[in-house]
Amino acid sequence: MNRIVAVRHDAARNGRQHQRIQHDLGERRTNADLAHEGRTKTAENAEIRQLDVTADRIRDQVHVVAELAERLDAVVLAEGGAARLEKRLRREHQDAHGSLYLVEPAEVRLQSAPQPHESRPLLLKVFARLGISAALLYFVLRSIDLSAFLERVKSMNPAWMALALAAYAATQSVSVWRWRRLLSAQHVDVDKRRLTESIWVSLFFNNFLPSNIGGDVVRIADTAPAAGSKTLATTVVLVDRVIGLAALVVVAATGAFTAQLFGVHIPGARWLWLASGLGAVAAISVITIPTIVGHALSPVRALNKPWLTERAQRLEDAVIRFRNAPGAVLGAFGGALVVQLTIVAFYLLTAEGLSVPLPVFLGAVLIPVSLVVQMAPVSINGFGVREAVFAFFFRRFGLPVDAAVALSLVSTGMVMGLSLVGGVMFLRRR
User: Fold this and answer.
1) Which of 217, 223, 359, 390 could disulfide-pair with 404, CB 3.0 to 4.6 Å?
2) In this predicted structure, what is the pLDDT of residue 319?
3) CB neighbours (10 Å) of residue 410?
4) What count of Cα atoms within 13 Å lies in the side-chain half-sphere of residue 430?
5) Whole-angstrom Cα distance, residue 179 to residue 172?
6) 234 contacts 101 by C-beta, under 8 angstroms
7) Residues 176 and 304 both lie in one domain
8) Is 386 exposed, middle or buried (0-12, 13-18, 19+ CB in 10 A)?
9) Per-residue pLDDT tens for 221-253?
10) Buried b (16+ CB within 10 A) or exposed e, 374-385
């Protein structure tokens, strides 16, 4: 009996152990299954997140492609006419001059084709300039002997005209040298061939657009990649412009002073000397007083705009680099003087070809003054304004007015014809 009870007891104990083992195995299997399900769900969630990211990227790329397509359409439409092309160039010019015009690039938007209401003010300005040019040309032409004017043009000497064109072409080479020296002062290296092409293309745009900003846009766009900054490229172009204008005033003031030595009074000579003196003082101040640029830019920094502060600092750094390279700046100024004197020679050679009795000292004053006056944005490429200035000086010195108009129109036509070389270079880019 005791044996039977012991056997039953062992069997019950073995049963409990078996149940315990079964329970443990069940828990382990359940935990493994749960872990496997967790890993599966995690993998599925990762795949879903990856699909979401991929979808977002595809959607972003679609938007970018759509915006680029709109931009391409805008370019094609803008190139449909001179007015639209100028508007596009003006927009790029403002972008390139962001630090100077205080246009905040907080949100960059690719522009679509200009709407009619947006183009209307631009067209009104173009028509206003056309009207001013036409009115001035009408009053000048009605005051001259047209038959004498036409006879003078028909009898021009081709050899002198060829020499004049060669002289003007030489100014472009000197301008490239001057521009490259200024870029070198900023530690920017651009291939000479690239700069030469850019100078000619800018000459084309300056002559065939209603305003003269197109050439600057071309030069900035061509050097910004090498400079690594539109602000720096813009600064170099502006400094080049200022140096050229200073040289122009110096040549005019020197011509007026020379005329005074020979007893010839030049109208406005005092203003030329005053402008030369003020320009010299300003240039010397910027070079010798290191803090003057920083103080001048302090109102910009006071706006507490990071992008403005960054551009102001770039501008100040560029001025410091120019200050540390006086040889480059003085060389550029010397090159600018050569350019302005060569332009005077261009007009003197053209006058010789037209049998126009233009004294050298008068040309040294007349040409720079007319170039400065025609910078005013009131006419198309200076037409009318330039002829009026020429007629005024010729009449003042007792020279035939028809000769003044012939010299002005023929020389302008020659420059425009020569600038077509830049137009061909521009078409080759495309």
Assistant:
1) 390
2) 82
3) 20
4) 9
5) 10
6) no
7) yes
8) buried
9) 999 999 988 989 999 999 999 899 889 888 888
10) beeeebbbbbbb
Calculate the average pLDDT of the chain: 76
Is residue 27 domain-shared with residue 166, that is, in the same domain? no
- Residue 240 contacts by C-beta under 8 Å, 6 or more apart in sequence? 178, 179, 182, 332
The CA distance from 24 to 29, in Å, is: 9
Give the model's pLDDT for residue 19: 60
Task: Give the DSSP H or E segment for 98.
Answer: helix 98-101
Written as one string, the DSSP assignment of 160-176 is HHHHHHHHHHHHHHHHH
Q: What does residue 211 show for φ and ψ, rounded to 5 degrees?
A: -125, 175
Asked whether residue 151 falls in the same domain as residue 293, the answer is yes
Let me know: does 393 contact 422? Beta carbons within 8 Å. no
Rounded Cα–Cα distance for residues 302 and 144 (Å): 57
Classify residue 33: in a domain, yes or no: yes
- Report the C-alpha gap between 241 and 246 in whole angstroms: 9
Give the domain range for residue 400. Answer: 117-429
Residues 64 and 211 in one domain: no
Single residue among 78, 109, 141 that ends a domain in this structure? 78
User: Which has the minimum average pLDDT: 3-17, 56-70, 346-360, 413-427?
Assistant: 56-70
247-302 confidence digits (pLDDT tens): 988 888 888 888 777 777 777 777 878 887 887 788 777 777 767 877 777 887 78
420 shares a domain with 287: yes
Whole-number Å distance between alpha carbons of 364 and 256:
8
Q: How far apart are CA 346 and CA 37, in angstroms?
A: 89
268: in domain = yes
Helix (H) / strand (E) containing 416: helix 401-429
Torsion of CA 407, 213, 430, 426, to 10 degrees: 20
In this structure, is residue 11 part of a structural domain? no
Residue that is written with structure tokens 């030069």 in the block: 219
The structural domain count of the chain equals 2
pLDDT digits (tens, 9 = 90+) for 84-129: 444 444 454 444 444 433 333 333 333 444 555 556 777 787 788 8
Query: Is the same domain home to 297 and 409?
Result: yes
Residues 340 and 198 in one domain: yes
Identify whether the C-beta of residue 229 lies closer than 8 Å to the C-beta of residue 236: no
**Residue 176 falls within a domain, yes or no?**
yes
27 & 146 share domain: no
Q: How far is CA 81 from the centre of its chain?
A: 20
Condensed to tens digits (0 to 9), the pLDDT of residues 300-310 reads 778 878 877 88
